[in-house]
Design brief:
Shape: globular
Number of helices: 3
Strand content: over 45%
Largest sheet: 8 strands, antiparallel
Radius of gyration: 28 Å
Number of strands: 59
Helix content: under 10%
Structural class: mainly beta
Distance between the termini: 17 Å
Strand order of the largest sheet: 2-3-4-5-6-13-20-19
Length: about 800
């Protein structure tokens, strides 16, 4: 599978929770064949004479950074080319260390001059502890040592972690390599130990301060480095309980971690000062987010509605009335750039957003403000009009257009084509919708699709639906040819353009394709026989397939490749071909009542990334634990063939955290947005602004890995033909087989310890282990009889421990 979202990436020394996750997973060594593969990323090497200073027990060398592990301390030596830009302005964004540490010593030759900075991290009041290696790796190193008559240190081992055991009484410090090659650390506090004794001191810096978001700012001669606000938690069998904590300065060079929440004295405490970012957006009242888009530079554009006149980052004033729509821009590193209010004197509800090629934001929603700022036409009357607004990349309103007729018109979805036109969908009971090219179909609501030019001029409007009362468009996407793909719900059994029949019950999901000129191409019903099959989000992959998500109570949803998980609603993902044919349907969820998929995006490989909300603590494919409260937000990846890859919970201990939309940037990172009631949302880089709910934005870094394809003769069994691409090509590969998907992390003591697999934990077998290349294929018999069909395969790339997608044998 593509690796789990790496939501814990370091900006300075970072922390991870992999050790605590591993302890919660069940393994059965009697039913599992052990295998040994090399750990990717950071390797720590003991000193066998290659460092002249005998006080160095372990070392790490990377481009621009040397780290020496000493007794109860570690030293970091940073190098950069002379004249590099300084980052010491107080109002500047603090860079990550990996940005500062790039140097070109090998390529610039003797003419280059370098600046050096040495920082020592110590732990005042700690015990005298010599570090020890943990998680031994297979990689060996050879070094020349000594002076002119140098000797050789051969077969020097390497380790995946360094541990300072009992650094403070009952407290261990773990330093390890992350999946993508950065160094991470965490404190493990045994039950009853005094975590208040922990102190971290920096020598070689100018000063420390804590910013308004609770982040530690480390001022040095190289600029200001940042360490994210601390996260502290304990785990039990059911959930991970986050505990309120903060940094507290002892002096200009020393700080401590103050734990404000209640701690269970019988459980291990994990203190994690840095998690890959999550940002709260809002002001002192309620702020709700429903849409997200990503521009070409990786900035996130989000929209929703707000009651807060003091929304952080605002560049204009609140319009009054009820809610205002807002648009906010957040940088790729999680920093708020600006926020703009949109609206008039009444209710203005922002529902969805798209980014054009220039980085401008196109926003839709619905409004009953007749004086909406920037309007280029007139409100159509009655209660609500749909609106479309364009906001520049710098946050300036360009124009706003009312869409609708004499009745109720609600805009829910928007997408931008390659020419910068806005394609909008929603629902309407207006029979006189401006720009219409056909007639309302009857009943109460019809779906509509509207095209608006880059300058805000209405091009055309098309009604979609049948004669029943409910035809609602909730999501829209545009394929590479400029066709609009629309999803939503319908109670009409005679929906125009249908290529199949309504499945029964009051509501089916639907998918419709509309040409760039507004002509209906086809319509497909999706669902089963139960009463609710609700489609909410849609994405178009690079091949023009439609990927749809929503929620369903139907246990017989057409095209299903797995079973409903129980409870009331499961989330789902459906793939529909460019010609309207159902390809597959996958249920997502756990045993509780509410697993709801709201937003979906497609990555470059055609995988679906889904966000929503769940109250299931046993959501299939999970790689972490439910955070508490009733609802957590979630992100799920489903492969292009419909196989669940992984699921991660997002949230904190508050009652409800819900993901409503998701986008993928140009390098494959996922950005999810929604609403947070939790004040302790995992990974936060600032504080909750107040009110019941803040908007939130989370960035998940998703590691690349090889891709796997499988063909087999079913139901008669093998041989199974396996092919792969995207491996490193530097050694062997291992092909693993299991009867079920799941979540299994390779335990410590094995090669590739910590690597997460997407296979059932107690059923893993090795189907093949041997030579492999960047791309390859192999016929695997593996005693494959009919029982092999329906099982799953996953590939591990030996040199990197990168894992492929999980492929189903069909």
């Amino acid at each position: 599978m593509r690796h789990k979202p790496l939501g814990m990436i370091a900006s300075c020394l970072a922390l991870s929770c992999a050790a605590t996750f591993a302890s919660t997973l069940e393994t059965n060594p009697d039913k599992q064949e052990a295998f040994s593969l090399a750990l990717r990323g950071v390797h720590f090497v003991p000193n066998h004479g290659q460092w002249a200073d005998a006080g160095v027990h372990f070392g790490l060398r990377s481009l621009g950074l040397d780290v020496a592990f000493r007794e109860s301390a570690l030293t970091m030596h940073l190098v950069r080319q002379a004249g590099s830009e300084s980052h010491d302005r107080e109002d500047a964004q603090a860079p990550n260390l990996d940005t500062l540490l790039t140097d070109d010593r090998d390529s610039l030759g003797d003419r280059a001059k370098y600046e050096h900075l040495t920082l020592t991290v110590s732990f005042p009041g700690s015990n005298d502890v010599v570090p020890e290696g943990d998680m031994p790796q297979t990689a060996k190193s050879n070094y020349f040592v000594g002076g002119e008559e140098r000797g050789v240190a051969t077969d020097v081992p390497s380790f995946g972690a360094v541990i300072y055991e009992n650094l403070y009484d009952g407290i261990d410090l773990h330093v390890m390599g992350s999946d993508d090659g950065v160094m991470k650390y965490e404190f493990h506090v045994e039950p009853g130990a005094d975590y208040g004794r922990i102190r971290i001191a920096y020598d070689g810096i100018e000063s420390l301060r804590i910013d308004d978001g609770g982040n530690l700012q480390i001022k040095t001669s190289f600029g200001t480095l940042a360490d994210g606000a601390p996260v502290v938690w304990q785990e039990n069998a059911r959930s991970r309980d986050t505990i309120a904590a903060r940094f507290e300065l002892c002096d200009d060079h020393t700080y401590r971690i103050a734990v404000d929440g209640l701690v269970d004295p019988t459980s291990v405490l994990i203190i994690d000062p840095d998690v890959e970012w999550m940002t709260y957006l809002g002001g002192s009242d309620d702020d709700e987010c429903y849409g997200i888009a990503v521009d070409g530079a990786g900035n996130a554009l989000v929209t929703g509605h707000t009651l807060s006149p003091d929304f952080e980052g605002r560049n204009n004033a609140f319009y009054g009335g009820d809610y205002d729509t807002f648009v906010a821009k957040v940088s790729a590193s999680g920093t708020l750039q600006w926020m703009t209010y949109l609206g008039g004197s009444a209710f203005d509800h922002g529902r969805e957003i798209a980014a054009d090629s220039a980085g401008d934001a196109l926003v839709t929603g619905y409004t009953n403000s007749p004086d909406f700022e920037g309007r280029n036409n007139t409100f159509h009357g009655y209660s609500y009009d749909t609106f479309v607004a364009k906001v520049s990349a710098s946050g300036t309103l360009q124009w706003m257009t009312y869409l609708g007729g004499a009745r109720v018109d609600h805009g829910f979805g928007i997408a931008a084509d390659s020419a910068g036109n806005a394609m909008v969908t929603g629902r309407t009971d207006s029979t006189d919708f401006d720009g219409r090219n056909n007639s309302h179909h009857g009943g109460q609501f019809d779906v509509f699709v509207v095209k608006v030019s880059p300058s805000g001029t209405l091009q055309w409007m098309t009604y979609l639906g049948g004669s029943s009362g409910t035809d609602d468009g909730f999501g829209i996407a545009v394929d590479s040819a400029g066709n609009a793909m629309v999803t939503g719900i319908t109670s009409s059994t005679d929906f125009e353009g249908r290529n199949n029949s309504h499945h029964g019950g009051p509501l089916d999901t639907f998918v419709v394709k509309v040409s760039p000129s507004g002509s209906l191409q086809w319509m497909t019903y999706l669902g089963g026989s139960s009463d609710y099959d609700n489609g909410y989000g849609i994405a178009a992959d690079s091949a023009g397939n439609a990927l749809v998500t929503g929620r369903t109570r139907s246990t017989d949803f057409e095209g299903r490749n797995n079973s409903h998980h129980g409870g009331q609603f499961d989330a789902f993902v459906v793939k529909v071909s460019p010609s309207g044919s159902l390809q597959w349907m996958t249920y997502l969820g756990g045993s509780s009542d509410n697993d709801d998929g709201f937003g979906i995006a497609a990555d470059s490989a055609g995988n679906a990334l889904v966000t929503g909300r769940t109250d299931s603590t046993d959501f299939e494919g999970r790689v972490n634990l439910h955070h508490g409260g009733q609802f957590d937000a979630f992100v799920v990846e489903v492969s292009a063939s419909g196989v669940l890859q992984w699921m991660t919970y997002l949230g904190g201990s508050g009652f409800r955290d819900s993901g409503y939309d998701i986008a993928v940037d140009s390098v494959g990172n996922a950005l999810a947005a929604g609403n947070a009631e939790s004040h302790d949302f995992e990974g936060r880089n600032n504080s909750h602004h107040g009110g019941v709910v803040d908007a939130f934005l989370v960035k998940l870094r998703i590691a690349d890995g090889p891709r796997l394809s499988v063909t087999a003769t079913c139901p008669s069994g093998g041989p199974i033909q396996v092919s792969w691409s995207g491996a490193s090509g530097g050694g062997t590969v291992a092909l693993l087989y299991a009867r079920t998907t799941g979540s299994f992390r390779i335990p410590n003591g094995n090669r590739c310890a910590g690597t997460l697999l997407g296979l059932g934990s107690n059923q893993i077998q090795i189907a093949y282990q041997g030579s492999g290349g960047q791309s390859g294929s192999r016929t695997v018999n593996s005693n494959a009889g009919p029982g092999a069909c329906g099982g799953y395969l996953q590939l591990i790339d030996t040199p990197t421990c990168g894992t492929s997608n999980v492929a189903r044998i069909e």
